[in-house]
Amino acid sequence: MARDSARRSLGGNPTLSAARFEGITGDGVMTIAGTAWRAFVLVALVMASAGYTWWSVATGVAQNPMTLLWVGLIGGLVLAMVTIFRPQLAPWTSPLYAVVEGLALGAISVVMDRVYPGLPTQAVLITFGVFLAMLALYTFRIITVTARFRSIMISAIVGVLVFYVLTMVLSFFGVPMTLVRGNGMVSVGISLLISGIASFSLLLDFHAIEEGSRLKAPRFMSWYGAFGLVVGLVWVYIEILNLLRKLRD
């Protein structure tokens, strides 16, 4: 009974939900240390891929960064869906996701750096600073991931997703989105709010990884936990980059 209750308590990250740990069997045991090491490997792959993309665009090896951007976005989405629905494949799909996602981030960053020199570097530093701050808040239980906290965060994340979809649909119909995409105070406030939601969603990732380890999930779920954490970090970086762009304008 306690084990089932703990499973239901797992966090609200779409990639790290309670259902991911239920009914899954396999060799070995998921550990926090093992997940942390795998997350380090995935982050290194993202940065290496992004660095190569930046270099290839800057040196003219890749003529069109938008091609790499779309390859990264579409490839990352496909690999993410495969990993979410088949977590057993995470040891293979999560490294591929990291490499492909790096293509998209590298393309976005090099284009952004041409217009706003130094901005991507600032966004990377702030992203890691946010990660360390959230890790400290969770480790020292300054913020406790309770059922109410998860409910609020899930509602906020769903709200952001709906907001993204509505913005995209309205733009397709030619509705001007300067209030959202511009650099006014309302637009900056929206980006600041979404950046905060993305940052605090990392707490859900930490909680889910800790609970997965406590429930002795199979070893391959360490890769899955690392994958979910990288998804969260990518979201934080994109939102911070967008926020800094608006502030720079």
Q: How do you describe this structure in short?
A:
The protein is built from 9 helices and no strands. It is mainly α and 249 residues long.
Inertia-based shape: globular
Low-pLDDT residue spans: 1-12
Strand content: under 5%
What is the radius of gyration?
Answer: 18 Å
Q: Termini separation (Å)?
A: 55 Å
Order of SSEs: HHHHHHHHH
DSSP E strands, number: 0
The helix fraction, in percent, is over 70%
Query: Could you describe the largest sheet, including whether it forms a barrel?
Result: none
Structural class: mainly alpha
Count helical runs. Answer: 9
Average pLDDT: 89
Explain how this protein is built.
The structure is a single chain. With 249 residues, the chain is mainly α. Helix content is 77%, strand content 0%. It has 9 helices and no strands. Helix 2 (32-58) crosses helix 4 (90-115), helix 5 crosses helix 8 (185-214) and helix 5 (119-139) packs across helix 9 (220-248). The model is unreliable at 1-12 (pLDDT under 50).
Show the helix and strand layout.
Elements: H1 2-8, H2 32-58, H3 65-85, H4 90-115, H5 119-139, H6 147-172, H7 178-181, H8 185-214, H9 220-248
What key attributes describe this structure?
single chain; 249 residues; mainly alpha; 9 helices; 77% helix; globular; disordered N terminus
